[in-house]
Amino acid sequence: MKSTIFKYGFYGLIAGLIIFLSSILFGKGLSYSTQEILGYVSMVACLSFVFFGIKHYRDHVNEGTISIGKAIVIGVLISALVGVGVGIADYIYTTLINPDFANEYLETSLKTMENTLSSQEFQAKKVELKQQMEDYGGSGFMAFLMFFTVVLIGFVISLISGLILQRK
């Protein structure tokens, strides 16, 4: 089980680094909402290794059988390695490539809110968002948030993959 997790997790980690950094670098001129969609598509693409890792374990290691529980464990562990790759890519981006990302994101979000909310709602949201950015806007926390997001999506993919691939 360990070799399957490390093999497919390493593939996903490398894919996470490459795909995520590529989408960030090549998507510079795109809106933040488009970049966000691109980011999620990148995560799901990297997490495809979860399905293939579970399938490999079932077919080549465990004599053609796998339980839903074992599939979820394998998938989440692979997802954790993918999350490390995406988290590293996010940390590199927010510290080396674009250290002003948090401020740019805050300004863009405030402009969008100003156009869509009433004056009172905007002022309340503005204070709230600025406080959140002060509390959580560091590169390390953002990288952890990306890691957590990948693992959470990976859990869902693991569950679906386990349901599809389970055999007793």
Automatic annotation (TrEMBL):
<feature type="transmembrane region" description="Helical">
    <location>
        <begin position="141"/>
        <end position="165"/>
    </location>
</feature>
<dbReference type="InterPro" id="IPR025250">
    <property type="entry name" value="DUF4199"/>
</dbReference>
<keyword id="KW-1133">Transmembrane helix</keyword>
<keyword id="KW-0472">Membrane</keyword>
<keyword id="KW-0812">Transmembrane</keyword>
<feature type="transmembrane region" description="Helical">
    <location>
        <begin position="66"/>
        <end position="93"/>
    </location>
</feature>
<protein>
    <recommendedName>
        <fullName>DUF4199 domain-containing protein</fullName>
    </recommendedName>
</protein>
<dbReference type="Pfam" id="PF13858">
    <property type="entry name" value="DUF4199"/>
</dbReference>
<feature type="transmembrane region" description="Helical">
    <location>
        <begin position="37"/>
        <end position="54"/>
    </location>
</feature>
<feature type="transmembrane region" description="Helical">
    <location>
        <begin position="12"/>
        <end position="31"/>
    </location>
</feature>
